[in-house]
Specification:
This protein is of the alpha/beta class. The protein has one domain: Vaccinia Virus protein VP39 (Rossmann fold, 3-Layer(aba) Sandwich). Helix content is 37%, strand content 23%. The strands form two sheets. The chain has a seven-stranded mixed beta sheet with strand order 5-4-3-6-7-9-8, with helices on both faces. Helix 2 packs across helix 4, helix 3 crosses helix 4 and helix 9 runs parallel beside helix 10. The radius of gyration is 18 Å and the shape is globular.
Length: 251
């Protein structure tokens, strides 16, 4: 995965990434870029500093590609061999505008059943945690509509998925989910107990889950009690990325 490669492939509002030996074209628009600006405002200055070596690249386009490389592609590396299979039912809680899902769909050649959940209106969830305290100093809180942007980005990239708000997913009676992924959402879509209860009902018996769980209020231990904990893939002072399975009897 090379940033230089992606920068060399920019054409209007598209660029390519190379992941696991496969070239994938991603399309974006002004709304995609604005979402990154609102969601990760502290990264704008870092992006500009790195762009000093690539002055010929538009700063907004560079920011979007920088975001993909810093936050999205590393998630695939962390998965390692814990990867969804073809034709599995996949659920992503906190899908953002769908960049991860679009790449996953390409990697599995469209042979995956995508179910994506995102909030309708941005509620500045990051400020709930200590690591987001600096956020309010750097930005004027603006309303953004992630669910709408998610649908737009999926359409832009010709990716089929069922898209839900948190309220809609609760009423959906979605079952037999084989794989759950939740990156940088920290279970904020629900209280931890409701989160676990929902997943227990929605997941198939042999389902896998990779989930970032906030460490506050003993959430991690509560999560481990609900599911068959396998290992911690990554962690810092604020969250743990946990790999678990639904059923204690399945290794």
């Amino acid at each position: 995965m090379s940033l230089e490669f992606s920068l060399s492939t920019i054409q209007q509002n598209t660029f390519q990434i190379n992941i696991f030996g496969k070239n994938i074209t991603l399309k974006f628009n002004e709304n995609s870029i604005n979402w990154v600006k609102e969601y990760k405002p502290l990264e704008i200055e870092k992006s500009e500093k790195l762009r000093e070596k690539y002055q010929n690249i538009n700063s907004d386009i560079f920011l979007f590609i920088y975001y993909v490389y810093k936050f999205i592609l590393p998630d695939f590396n962390l998965m390692g061999n814990i990867f969804p299979n073809h034709n599995e039912k996949y659920l992503e809680l906190g899908a953002g505008i769908g960049i991860f899902a679009v790449i996953l769909d390409h990697l599995l050649e469209g042979k995956i059943i995508l179910n994506l959940v995102e909030v309708e209106v941005n509620m500045d969830h990051a400020s709930k945690f200590n690591y987001g305290a600096k956020l309010d100093e750097k930005r004027k809180i603006a309303k953004i509509f992630p669910l709408k942007l998610l649908k737009e980005f999926l359409d832009l990239n010709n990716t089929k998925a069922k898209v839900f708000s948190p309220e809609e997913i609760k009423k959906s009676n979605l079952t037999s989910i084989n794989y759950v992924f939740s990156s940088r959402s920290y279970c904020f879509l629900y209280d931890i107990e409701e989160y676990s209860s929902f997943l227990s009902k929605a997941m198939a018996a042999d389902a896998k889950i990779i989930c970032d769980v906030a460490k506050e209020h003993d959430h991690v231990n509560k999560f481990k009690k609900e599911f068959f904990y396998k290992k911690t893939l990554a962690e810092n002072d604020y969250f743990a990325r946990i790999f678990a399975m639904k059923n204690f009897s399945i290794s």
